[in-house]
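Q: Predict the bound structure with GLP.
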Amino acid sequence: MFTIIVKENKQDMANAAFEVIKEVLDQKPNAVLGLATGSSPIGLYKKMIEDHKTAGRSYKDVVTFNLDEYVHLDRNHSQSYYTFMKEHLFDFIDIDLNNVHIPNGNAEDFEVEVERYEDELSKFHVDVQVLGIGSNGHIGFNEPGTPFASTTHKESLKESTRNDNARFFASIDDVPTHAITMGIASIMKAKKILLLASTSYKAKAIAAMIHGPVTENCPASVLQSHPDVVIIIDKAAASLLADDGH
Ligand code: GLP
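A: Predicted complex:
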């Protein structure tokens, strides 16, 4: 079931997203959070840091699982998702890094790594999974065509995804060609999903996710069958929905 919230700007989106996370953390200080990278959750992470600093919320018992990581990028590379999470959240809260899970994009054996990650994930039940959406409807790095039954796996990135992410690298050739990502079935196990998206660039994917057929061609459309999905978007991302945002 979708709860769709349309906001004026990024700050309002971040505030609304934080309310969702806050409700979970207030009830359960040892919550399991599924986390995402990309520009969409940055405002939310800022609010979480602010809440830690001003309200004193502790993350010491919180467990986190990130959706994905690039393959063959050093963990300390400026664009690795490990670095992203440290720079946008983990370095500024009191999280125990032993409770942090991010796929190892430099594993020697990827078959072993994807199994290890899924095994670890299956020991927990994610209370809320933060998600962005790719312009092609991907969630995590599950590109169009990924089976809905997929668990954590190594994914070959589409050219469109590599182009979308090229802005973070010196050139398109530097953008990794593969990633390890939680699968669609792994994501769907979360009790609650919080999906964030902004700009008209995401409008088509948002409309397809909400109103399109449930098809593996649009991975995010699977969320139509999840019991609790909160979608927080700006007006531009909502522009292909009806006037009331639905
Ligand atoms: C990458 C991530 C996705 C994310 C997407 C959107 O592809 N792997 O998980 O949803 O970017 O990013 P942004 O929020 O910057 O638009």
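A: The first strand starts at residue 2 and ends at 7.
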